[in-house]
Design goal:
By secondary structure, the protein is of the alpha+beta class. The protein has five helices and ten strands. The longest helix has 21 residues.
Amino acid sequence: MPNFDLKTGKVIGYDHLQAGKNCQDAIASKQFELGDGQYSIVVIADGSSVAKSNPHLVHSEVGSQLTVDFLLRRTYQYLSENYHAPIIPRFLFDDLIQYYQSILVNQSFFSVQEKVEFVNFNLLCTVLALIVTPKYGLILRYGDGIIIIDNQVFTFDYEDMPPYPGYLLIPQHLKINPSQLSQGFEVTEFDPNNTQKIAIGSDAFVANQELIPLFWNHHHPNQIQRNLNVWSKVDHKLLDDASLAVLEKKGE
């Protein structure tokens, strides 16, 4: 049965640092044992800067943190209750939209436009998540980012205009037609028993794929975080906020 070492990190992008912006990424992770072995969950959310004309109003890091915390808790709940792993993504997306809707219910909006602005400024983020069980490996995606499974690299780039789950909260005649948006996560499956290493990262790495060989084979538990700090604040390679999670199979 597979056992993986998990390392994660998050750093503010150099351009955001220079502009005095907050880090709009969020990442949450958990490794634990159930009766049949090791389980790993990672969730990354990359907040939007959609309101470029009013950057001081954008706090998408709020939605990013709420999103990763919620999806981590809910995924852990489903796995603990012995749900069949491959069907969990179907439930998670509906759960996430309902969670966003519950946030909106508790706000005091005077108009539909205020509601739209609240969503645009606070609840827009892409999602990239990893679930590894003793039998199944699942990667969930909504929006851009990078996925690596052994030597296969998959990149997703929407040129700063990715879809966000939060767009489904906005009425059809305002902003975007929800029928043009996916109603669920795109899921990539892999066999953890025949996989040696996996990484998921926010879209900052799409433009910095030369860093991929440096993701692996670190012994220090904080080395990924150390590397991100250097790549952003010293080398100025990561201009955008960056989050990264790396799983490597433990030696037999």
